[in-house]
Write a structure and sequence with these properties.
The protein is an alpha/beta fold. Helix content is 43%, strand content 17%. Strand 6, helix 7 and strand 7 form a beta-alpha-beta unit. Helix 1 packs across helix 13, helix 4 packs across helix 5 and helix 11 crosses helix 12. The chain is globular, with a radius of gyration of 21 Å. It binds nicotinamide-adenine-dinucleotide (NAD). Nicotinamide-adenine-dinucleotide binds next to helix 7.
């Protein structure tokens, strides 16, 4: 989180306010945008391996289904709370609307520490969660997906429980599933790949070469590590990467396969002592053309924004830049490609997974990546057009595009 007491929910409300200053909007629609349509809190008992029972709490926030069923991830984390879940569901509505996916915004979480659960307990928690939520989710109601600490294996258990509950085979209840259960080719790299397509597109506009473009990436997990490897393979100079314990830096460019080996071995620092920075946070301040925050929310805030030394920020994480910090960056002429565009590759391919589940016919990876590239680059070009039209930031332009589509959908449905 940021240094202030502001929450992700405060930030999304501020972003809505910024965008709606520039367009005509019905006040009721503005209220609808600021309020999730339904918030569900469930509790369920799960038998532990030692024979005891623990009562788990879980939330699902369903923000807007104006343009299609709610859609969004489900996380397992001890700090899951309702306010953050609501904010994340709101960003999902804006993300889906921006990239023109016929789905809405949802998000959920189970309050638990997966490090303290055995594999069998994770399976029981997954099944019990789906039993408890089963009435309010479904392929035409609310489609879930993996998020922090959840993965294809957990999605498989949940799909199985939902299917049994409905007496059928219903892969469309959830995305990010194992391929054998109707998962999609290309899903695991989709988020990073989408951001890489955007970076390549932006390079075209600035007449820059990959080999002379430096990139620093905070976070070496699903998003950050895959982005680092894709960019390295394209010839970019990835000068810094970090995880929660270590930041590596080499101004001539890191050897990313070697960093991946070090990470797989359990310690990114084993890459080489000379390349380790004194603290992981130092990564944010290295001089670089592009900075990719791909770890946590609120990492670029009022107190550290002046130390940022990048020309372009591509938000692979959700909510890494606070609104106050973004104002400073924009004043300094630093472009921020907002999360709802930059990390939309994940939800674009999740949507393609749903389409394949509905058709019961599956595409090759080449087809998936072609559709991903087309959709994300087209959305970027529309955002650029709005940046020029409204003389505003990329985030506000993206929010305006999303809000315009949501407003059109709500009006067409006769909600106002
Ligand atoms: P992950 O858990 O796989 O990876 C997170 C990485 O961040 C890990 O390497 C961790 O060590 C590192 N990290 C944690 N604290 C850090 C710190 N203080 N400094 C530096 N690194 C730190 O998670 P992920 O799936 O890569 O998600 C990261 C972000 O991207 C989240 O905000 C998530 O919501 C967002 N996101 C992910 C996807 C996806 O498909 N994976 C899609 C959309 C958005």
């Amino acid at each position: 989180m940021s240094q202030t007491e502001e929450t992700a929910y405060d930030h999304v409300i501020e972003q809505i306010e910024e965008a709606t200053k520039l367009i005509e909007i019905d006040p009721i629609i503005k209220d609808l945008l600021k309020t999730p349509k339904r918030v569900v809190h469930v509790s369920f008992p799960v038998e532990r391996d030692d024979g005891s029972t623990t009562l788990f709490q879980a939330y699902r926030s369903q923000h807007s289904d104006a343009l299609g069923p709610y859609k969004g991830g489900l996380r397992f984390h001890p700090e899951v709370d309702l306010e953050e879940t609501k904010a994340l569901s709101m960003w999902m509505s804006f993300k889906c609307a921006l990239v023109e996916i016929p789905q809405g915004g949802g998000k959920g979480g189970v309050v638990c520490d997966p490090n303290e659960l055995s594999e069998r307990e994770v399976r029981r928690v997954s099944r019990a969660f789906m039993e408890a939520m089963g009435d309010v989710v479904g392929p035409t109601q609310d489609i879930m997906a993996p998020d922090v600490n959840t993965n294809p294996t957990i999605m498989g258990y949940m799909m199985d429980t939902y299917s049994k509950r409905q007496s059928g085979f219903i892969p469309g209840i959830i995305t990010g599933k194992p391929l054998i259960l109707g998962g999609s080719e290309g899903r695991s790299q989709a988020t990073a790949q989408g951001a890489v397509y955007l970076i390549e597109r932006m390079l075209q506009d600035s007449n820059m070469e990959a080999s002379s473009t430096s990139i620093a990436i905070q976070g070496f997990g699903n998003g950050g590590q895959i982005a680092a490897k894709l960019l390295y393979d394209l010839g970019f100079k990835v000068v810094a990467v970090s995880d929660s314990k270590t930041a590596l830096y080499d101004q001539n460019g890191l050897d990313i396969p070697k960093a991946q080996e070090a990470k797989e071995g359990g310690d990114l620092a084993s890459y080489g002592e000379d390349d380790c920075m004194s603290s992981p946070d130092d990564l944010l301040y290295v001089e670089t053309d592009i900075l990719i925050p791909a770890a946590l929310d609120g990492v670029i805030h009022e107190d550290n924004v002046k130390q940022i030394n990048a020309q372009l920020i591509v938000e692979l994480a959700n909510g890494p830049t606070t609104p106050a910090a973004e104002k400073v960056l924009v004043e300094q002429g630093i472009r921020v490609i907002p999360d709802i565009l930059a990390n939309s590759g994940g939800v674009i391919v999740s949507y393609l997974e749903t389409v394949q589940n509905q058709m019961n016919y599956y595409w090759e990876e080449e087809e998936i990546l072609k559709q991903l590239k087309g959709r994300i680059v087209t959305s970027y070009e529309k955002v650029v057009h709005h940046v020029e039209t409204y003389e505003t930031s990329y985030r506000t332009a993206a929010m305006i595009l999303a809000i315009e589509r949501l407003q059109e959908g709500m009006v067409a449905r006769g909600w106002v």
